[in-house]
Amino acid sequence: MGYPEFTMHVFHGTLHPDFAGVARSLRRIVPRNAPGGAAVCVYHKGEKVVDIWGGTRDAAGSPWQEDTLSLSFSTTKGVASTLLHIYLDRGLLEIDAPVARYWPEFAASGKQGLTVRHLLCHEGGLFAIADMIDHAREMLDWDTMVARLAAAKPRHIPGQAHGYHGLTYGWLVGELVRRVAGGKSFSELIAAELAGPLGLGGLYCGVPPEQQGRCARLMAPGLDAPPEDARRRTEKIHRGAERWRRRLARLGFEYDPADTLAALVPSGMEELDWNGEAFRAVSIPAANGMFTARSLARLYACLAGGGALDGVRLLSEQAVLHAAQPQNQGAGRVIPISMRWRLGYHRVFAVGARAPRGFGHFGFGGSGGWADPSRQLAVALTVNSGVGTPFGDTRIARIGGAAIRAVDKRQT
Q: What is the rounded distance in angstroms from the CA atom of residue 125 to the CA atom of residue 163?
C-alpha cells in the first residue's frame, strides 16, 4: 500500500506512521547548516515502509533525489557476498573447497589449502594490501589486483586467525565469482544476478557513463586537501600507530595497529580521487559500490524473506540460513572488536536494540545495509558526509535501532 508523501525538515518520500522514529533518526544525520545528504529505506514483511531522503548531494547545494547514488565503501562487501552465495546455492562452488580448484593460480605461496569459507569469514590471512601494491592507483586495475592476490603469501595460516580483508576482499570474492560464472565482468554479474531480477535501479559496482550524473559527491574532512598535506597526515597516522602498538603491548594487548594500516591504507591512498568518474567506473567490490538506499534495502529484504521477494527467488531458504551462521568471534587482527563474522557478512550493531539473527555489512562513511529474518526486517542507509570508521559508525546503528524498536512495538 502507499503512504502519505512525507516532507519534514529537508526530507521527501514516503513513511509508514509506525516508523516515525526512523525519520527522527535521519533528521540527526542530515546536516542542517552544511552540505550533505542521506537516504533511508526500510522493508518489513516484504513491504516497503520507509523510503525517505533529503539534504544535498554536493557542496553546491544540488538536492538529493530519490535516485541519487552514493559511494558506500565496505557496504559493497555485503552485495558481493550475496552474489557469491547465489553460485554456492547453484552448486557451482563448494564452501569448504580450496579456492585454487576454481582459480588455479591462487595456489601459489602456500595457499593451496585456503578455502572459500576462509575468504568469506576473513580467515585467509590476505588482508595486507600494503604488502601487495606499490601505489593505491593499482587498485583501479582488476587484472593487476587479481594477479597480486594470486601470488600473495598469507600473513598467518588460513583458518587459524581472522583479520578484516578491508580492501582485498572484493577482488578475492569477485574473481572467484567471475571464474565460475564464465568470465563476465563483476559489474555485469551484479546487473544480471541481483539488479535485474529484483528490479534494482540503484545497485552498481562500476557505474556506467550514462549513470554518472546521479552520483552524490562524497564530502569529508580533508578529502580535497593538497597531496602534500594528505601525505603528511598519513605519515602522522603511521607514527601514531607505532606508539599505540608499544602502549598496548605494555598493557598485554596483542592488537597491532600496523595490521589495520596494512589492510586499509596502502601507499598513495590519499591521492585517489574518490569522486572521480574513473574511480566510480571500475569495480572494487570491497569499497566502491554506488547505491541507493532503496535498492540496497530491497536486496536485503529478499534475504530477510528467506531468499525471495515479490515472487522472485534469489536464494533458497537453506542458503540464507547458512550464510547467516557466525563463523568466528573475538577481536581480529585488523579490527580490535568482535564482528562475529558470518559468511561474507557481520553482526548487526543497533543502538538501543538487539538483532542476534541479523546480518549485513556497514561501511566507511556511515552507510550500511542488513537483514533480520527473525523480524522479516531490512534496513539501508546511504550518506555522503562524514567519515565514521571502516566498518560503519553510529549513524546506521541509530537508524537500525529505531527500525527494530518500531517493528517490535508493531508486533506486541
A: 7
Task: Give the chain's radius of gyration (CA, Å).
Answer: 20
Is the CB of residue 139 less than 8 Å from the CB of residue 148? no
Count of positions (residues) in the chain: 412
Give the active site residue among 25, 70, 72, 74. Answer: 74
- 147 CB-near residues (< 8 Å, 6+ apart): 105
Q: Provide the CA 276 distance to its chain's centre, in angstroms.
A: 20
Please say if 74 is a catalytic residue. Answer: yes
| Three-class DSSP labels, the chain | CCCCECCCCCEEEEECHHHHHHHHHHHHHCCCCCCCEEEEEEEECCEEEEEEEEEECCCCCCECCCCCEEECECHHHHHHHHHHHHHHHCCCCCCCCEHHHCCHHHHHHHCCCCEHHHHHCCCCCCCCHHHCCCCHHHHHCHHHHHHHHHHCCCCCCCCCCCCCCCCHHHHHHHHHHHHHCCCCCHHHHHHHHHHHHHCCCCEECCCCHHHHHHECCCECCCCCCCHHHHHHHHHHHHHHHHHHHHHHHHCCCCCCHHHHHHHHCCCCHHHCCCCCHHHHHCCCCCCECEECHHHHHHHHHHHHCCCEECCEECCCHHHHHHHCCCCCCCECCCCCCECCCCCCCECCCCCCCCCCCCEEEECCCCCEEEEECCCCEEEEEEECECCCECCECHHHHHHHHHHHHHHHHHCC
Look up residue 235 and give its amino acid.
Answer: E
* Predicted TM-score of the model (pTM): 0.93
Q: What is the pLDDT of residues 346-391, one digit of tens each?
A: 999 999 999 999 999 999 989 999 999 999 999 999 999 987 666 5
Per-residue pLDDT reduced to its tens digit, 252-295: 667 788 899 999 999 999 889 999 999 999 999 999 999 999 99
Cell triple for residue 13? 518520500
Which one, of 296, 292, 291, 298, lies nearest residue 48 by Cα?
A: 298
CB 116 within 8 A of CB 97: yes
Question: How far is Cα 280 from Cα 290, in angstroms, rounded to an integer?
Answer: 8
- Contacts with 169 (C-beta within 8 Å, 6 or more apart), sequence order: 77, 80, 119, 122, 285, 286
Distance, CA of 253 to CA of 239 (rounded, Å): 19
